[in-house]
Amino acid sequence: MRLISRRTRFIQAAASVAVVALAAAGCGESSTGSKPSEKESGKYTGKGIGLAYDIGGKGDQSFNDAAYAGFEKADKEFGIGGRDVEPQDGESDADKVQRLTQLAQSGYNPVIGVGYIYAPAVKEVAAKFPDTTFGIIDDETVVAKNVADMVFHEEQASYLAGVAAAKASKKGHIGFIGGVDIPLIHKFEAGYIQGAKSVDPAIKIESQYLTETPQEGGFSSPDKGKAGASGQIEAGADVIYHAAGLSGQGVISEAAGKKVWAIGVDSDQYAQTSLAAYKDYILGSALKNVGGAVYDLAKSVHEGKPLSGVVRGSLSNDGVGFADTNPKYKAMTDVVDAVNKAKKDIVDGKITVNTK
Question: Where is the signal peptide (predicted)?
Fold first, then answer.
C-alpha cells in the first residue's frame, strides 16, 4: 500500500488540539482529538488513535511532529479522536510497556510507538492484545499478525540532500550531524555522502554524531546540535545536514547565525513556525513521511482492513523525498535540476543508494 498519494501531503500543516493530562501514572502529557465516530465505514469500534512519542516529544518540529500531523489528519478525516502521549526523561522499557498497555486497555486502536526504541514494548504488548493493531515506526524486527512495521528508505532522501548540499556549496566543503551513533542514522549519513560525491568526488565532508546512546540526549538537545554545527562551520563547512531530531534545531539556528545553509530532516523544516526566524537559511529538508504512515495505519484500521508486516516508504511511493518550498532553493535551478535528476535515477533503478 502506498504510504501517501500526493507529495504535497509531506508539508501538511498541523492544527491544534486540546491538551489534557493523562491520569494514568507513567504516561506523561496527552492530547485528545474528536470523539470517536463510525459515520464512514461503520466498522470502527475503537476509542481512537493511541500515539506514543519518541525521545524529544511533540514540538521537535521534525520526527515526532510529523507523526502528530498524521494523527491530526486521521482525526480530521475520520473523526476518531485519540490520545498522544509524551515520553519521560530517563524512562525504561518497562515504562514504555506500561504506556502502550494503558493505551490498549483504554480501547485505543491503533496503538503506535513512534521510534525504534519501542520495539521491545510493542512486541510484548501486542502479544497481550491480539485484537488491537499496533504500529512501530523505524523498526522492522517485530513480527506479528497485529503489528505494522512502518519503515523508510531514509538513505534515498538523504542522497538527494547530499546532491543539493554539494551543488549549493561554494567551498566544496559540507557537513553531516547525526543525533545518535546507531545503524538507523548511519543510513542518513551513507546516502548523504554518496549523493554529495556523485556531484563532486573530491568534496570535503565533516561528519559527527552527537552521542553514542539516545539516553545521552543526541536526539533531544539543541545545545549539542548548536555546538556540533559551530565546530563544522569553523572547520569550513558551508552546508550542514542534520539527522538529529530536536537537536537539529540547534544545528539550524547556528547555521542561520553564521549565514550558511542548513538542511532539515523528516518534516519540511522551512515551513515550521518555530523555525521561522531561520528559514532563509534552510535550503530544504530530507523528508520522511511519518505522518503518512500514521495516517495510513489509522485509515486501514478504521476501514476494518488493518495493515500488518513491513510497510516501507521510498521515493517511488512518496514515502520519502526532498522539500523544495524555500523560494531561494527554487531559484537555484542547477541545484533543483540535479536533485530532480537524482530522484528520477533512483526511482528508475539507475542508482542504488548505500545504507552503510
Answer: 1-23
**What pLDDT, in 10s, does the model give residues 172-185?**
999 999 999 999 99
Does the pLDDT of residue 24 top 70, yes or no? no
pLDDT, one tens digit per residue, over 70-117 is: 999 999 999 999 999 999 888 889 999 999 999 999 999 999 999 999
DSSP E strand boundaries for the chain: 18-21, 29-32, 49-52, 82-85, 111-113, 134-137, 147-152, 173-180, 204-211, 239-243, 261-266, 282-288, 309-313, 320-323
State the DSSP code for 62.
S
pTM (2 d.p.): 0.86
CATH assignment of 154-288+318-347, given 3.40.47.10, 3.40.640.10, 3.40.50.2300, 3.40.50.720?
A: 3.40.50.2300
N-terminal to C-terminal alpha carbon distance within the chain: 27
Average pLDDT, integer, range 218-236: 97
